[in-house]
Amino acid sequence: MSRKHPAVPPDGLDAPDLRRIAESAAADSGLLSLGGVHDWFEERRKAIRMDVRRIPFAELQRWGFHPVTGNLAHDSGRFFTVEGLRARSEGPDPVSWSQPIMHQPEVGFLGILVKEFDGVLHCLMQAKAEPGNAEGLQLSPTVQATRSNYTGVHEGSAVRYLEYFTDPGKGRPLVDVLQSEHGSWFFRKRNRNLVVEAVGDVPEHEDYRWLTLGQVRRLLGVPDLVNMDTRTVLACLPVAPPDGSLEGVTADGSRGAAVAALTASLSAQAPAAHTLPELLRWFNGLRARSEVAAQLVPLTAVDGWVRDTDEIRHTGGQHFAIVAVSVEAGNREVKGWTQPLLSPRGTGVVAFLAKRIDGVLHVLARAHPEPGYVDLIELAPTVQCVPDDHAHLPPEQRPRFLDQVLAARPEQILYDAVQSEEGGRFYRALSRYLVVETDEDPVVPDDYRWMTVAQLVALLQHSNYCNIQARSLIACLQSVW
Fold it and tell me: What is the pLDDT of residue 247?
């Protein structure tokens, strides 16, 4: 099943840029030591105040339910709305359902500014709190803003450093790609993921610090510290130089062989179970044959959901609820506001099953349909679900590979940390992110394929291939080597 030719054809960044990225990814110290980064973050945690409390819908300010459609919207007509969605999937076992969904047609900015210091590329990272964060402060991109934010609809102060991502004279792009958001919670939502190298001096601010890529990847091993928006941007940035080596990367202990296999998987030159053209043919074939359809409907037309005074919930208590919060923040563009948030009913599991093929780590990706995607199907992790939603089902009806992932022995687990989803729209949305290695040869259904990490990263240079959960896991894998 293996190939002798490269898994990924040459594309994207040139060799010098790839080398600089790799050197930064291997650097555990920079302008600050890793200990200094932790000290700065803890100091900002004490200084940045955000108080969030649940409120009834009646206490929302400038938000309200439409008298006919029941849709929940801001009186400016901007930000986002909570509407209904009706979806159906045809085929041998047709299924249809309806649900609430967030609709935000704006394209936002998720941007990391980079700059060389002492010959090493550094990322300008922000200590930022969001109302839905479980632990408050997180390590966030330089810029994280919706169009409503950066055009001033919120009537707050300007978004800091935005000009480096909008003015071509202030920065050179290394990554610039539209990527999707959660396809079960957002309807066709996309953000512009950017990495831009600054031209000239960059003003300092106490909420921001320059970190190497190596320091950020170390922090990805800490639960609920690096936010989802940082993870999705980092996933789009290739971390291996063209010769496939990673200077400064070492593997020790019993995990050494697995780490070496992962290091090989990061290289575009590594052999793979399938070539990229073969994978594209498989994936686009599934998309072309897909019989999934989705459309927005009024929230009042959604079946199986009820609206109480303080939440919109599923009658069975599953999936998620729409809630309302009041926020007071000391260091944000706006100091206080109210808003709806989506609150999941349980901790998710997001996992790649991994296997070494000819010494190269492959992950099992799934072509996964979700009603909120622009193209309805994107590549997802092997497992992506909330186990509580399936606890009542017999084993044969539970999500494929879920039980295998949850039963993994400690020595099989390459990565395991609870991370949060986006805190600006989701309330305490947590998922357990895992990469589990198997030495078995599991039966692979037709909607799954073994892929190298480099192949996934190559697809991430383009829109609508890898979903947000897969991108998060790709970034988390960077903390392993």
Answer: 46
pLDDT at position 151 is 67
User: Phi/psi at 88 (nearest 5 deg)?
Assistant: -150, 150
Strand 190-198 vs strand 95-103: parallel, antiparallel, or unpaired?
unpaired
Contact between residue 450 and residue 441 where contact means Cβ atoms under 8 Å apart: no
**Cβ-proximal residues to 112 (8 Å cutoff; 6+ apart), any chain:** 123, 124, 125, 141, 142, 194, 195, 196, 230, 233, 234
* Residue 426: DSSP 8-state: B
| Encoded tokens for 396 | 């044969």
Instruction: Report the half-sphere exposure of 10 (CA within 13 A, side-chain side).
Output: 6
Query: Is the separation of the CB atoms in 231 and 350 below 8 Å?
Result: no
Beta bridge partners, 357, equal: 360
For residue 132, what pLDDT is reported? Answer: 97
> What are phi and psi for residue 305, nearest 5 degrees?
-130, 145
**This prediction's pTM:** 0.94
Instruction: Identify residue 90 by its one-letter amino acid code.
Output: E
pLDDT given for residue 96 in this prediction: 95
Q: What residues does 378 pair with on adjacent strands? A: 368
Asked if 434 contacts 150 with a C-beta cutoff of 8 angstroms, the reply is no
Instruction: Read off the tokens for 237.
Output: 């940035």
| Segments of the chain scoring below 50 in pLDDT | 2, 4, 10, 242, 247-253
Alpha-carbon distance of 35 to 135, in angstroms, equals 20
Comparing C-alpha atoms, which of 250, 275, 293 is closest to residue 91?
Answer: 293
Q: What is the mean pLDDT of the chain?
A: 92
Q: Which of 109, 115, 143, 110 is nearest to 210 (CA)?
A: 115
437: β partners? 354
What is residue 245's predicted lDDT score, i.e. its pLDDT? 53
Q: Rounded to the nearest 5°, which phi and psi values hold at 398? A: -80, 160
- 352: closest CA among 380, 378, 382, 379? 382
d(CA 465, CA 475): 16
The beta strands (E) that lie in 118-249 are given as: 120-129, 137-140, 143-145, 171-180, 190-198, 208-212
Determine the pLDDT at residue 90.
81
